[in-house]
């Protein structure tokens, strides 16, 4: 918790700085309304007591918050205020960041001519101020516009300069974006060997610094290159890696871009210290940027989710180039065998009501804590190990994996082919899943490593099953049965399997299992539900 100020410090530099820090922290947490309120409070204090050039940075922060909220008119107003203030006091370098930020607004609105003009101005101002490290971001922006407009030679030259400069200033983030840009240009120029080398370097930097955008974009480009060279396995591997992170990147695009631009520039530290003891604030900013990168990584990993449907899209695009047998094998890993032929013929499958289905949900306790302790690569590897074993278990018991939703796994028995054993098969699978995670926990504890713990919930009843959409479609199930199964998981206990009365009634006479009555538990949106713990018989 950041203390704004003691009563005796009202109007002091610490008081104003406290509001800046608090606003910055709130912005990182996504609470932009509160951040804006604190920035405005700081501006009022500056207006009352004065404070050198700090208002330039507060205006810039305000503009960035409004930009993230897509309030572009307000964002540009405050960016312009920062520019005007910097010009008023003659701080050339301080005006470059808000100028570049206005460029990003124009680019977002597809006014590329104005965007280019702003990026060029920011670049020249940074150079004139001798802030060569800060000039790398607008140079990258200019290269990206070149690439968008097909000016490949100019784009390649600028990206090369970005990479060279980032090596000099040891800026790994900027180096990664430069290498990604080079890989894209080389790919368009048909220089596949160079493209692959640069894309792998960008991807590795992404894993190193937790920049998921680099991983996702590099993986997508690699997938396309390998697909064109008929290396289908590698193409699929990298496409799958790409989709792990793409959905969350789409939702975070504006926010991430604004944050990266806002803190890309290196200003004169001495001037900042003179205005607001800014060295201390800069330290807080650096820490918060690290936390923000970790938070974005967790949010993006949390949305890894519906890979199956997206991989299907990839297959449909490329199947015409591959053998029928191979494509059928891959489709069978995505859709139930019974609906593959229907999808091939119609391009979709009719939704069907299934009266007797058991739905299972799992969720990991400790996922958030692990995401703070492990790199994105290590976290994905651990999650993949669990989900791969869950996949094997579902195949063993003949139940259908539906999808993953972040760190949650969803499966169902009795679909698409009805089975009288649906509840028993799903419970048997749930027990093995629980045991696998528990064994992994013990190994991790002995090694002093962070570990997962799992909650599992089950409910039985009718569902509607089928495929919806025409682009990112996947096999899915809907209905109140699914909702109650989810409640069983969320109201469960770590290392236990929580089931509903409906599932209990189907299994209570099965000698392979034992049950412990929990009583009634209030579930959000469902009222009071009876619940039992289920396990293998002892």
What is the element layout, followed by pairings?
Layout: H1 13-28, H2 32-49, H3 54-68, H4 72-89, H5 92-108, H6 112-128, H7 136-148, H8 152-168, H9 172-188, H10 192-209, H11 212-228, H12 232-262, H13 269-276, H14 278-302, H15 307-318, H16 324-332, H17 337-346, E1 352-365, H18 367-373, H19 376-397, E2 400-405, E3 408-413, H20 422-446, E4 453-467, E5 475-478, H21 480-490, E6 497-500, H22 501-507, E7 513-523, E8 527-536
Helix pairs in contact: 1-2, 1-14, 2-3, 3-4, 3-5, 3-12, 4-5, 5-6, 5-12, 6-7, 7-8, 7-9, 8-9, 9-10, 9-11, 10-11, 11-12, 12-14, 12-15, 13-14, 19-20
Please outline what is shown here.
It is built from 22 helices and eight strands. By secondary structure, the protein is α+β, with helices and mostly antiparallel strands. Helix 4 runs antiparallel to helix 5, helix 11 runs antiparallel to helix 12 and helix 12 packs across helix 15.
Describe the protein's architecture and organization.
By secondary structure, the protein is an alpha+beta fold. Among the domains are: 132-252, Tetratricopeptide repeat domain (Serine Threonine Protein Phosphatase 5, Tetratricopeptide repeat, Alpha Horseshoe), CATH 1.25.40; 349-536, 2-Layer Sandwich (Alpha-Beta Plaits). 65% of the residues lie in helices and 13% in strands. It has 22 helices and eight strands. It has helices at residues 13-28, 32-49, 54-68, 72-89, 92-108, 112-128, 136-148, 152-168, 172-188, 192-209, 212-228, 232-262, 269-276, 278-302, 307-318, 324-332, 337-346, 367-373, 376-397, 422-446, 480-490, 501-507; strands spanning 352-365, 400-405, 408-413, 453-467, 475-478, 497-500, 513-523, 527-536. Strands 1, 2, 3, 4, 5, 6, 7 and 8 form an eight-stranded mixed sheet that branches. A hairpin with a 2-residue loop joins β2 (400-405) and β3 (408-413). α1 runs parallel beside α14, α9 packs parallel to α11 and α11 packs antiparallel against α12 (232-262). The longest helix has 31 residues, at 232-262. The protein is elongated. The relative contact order is 0.06.
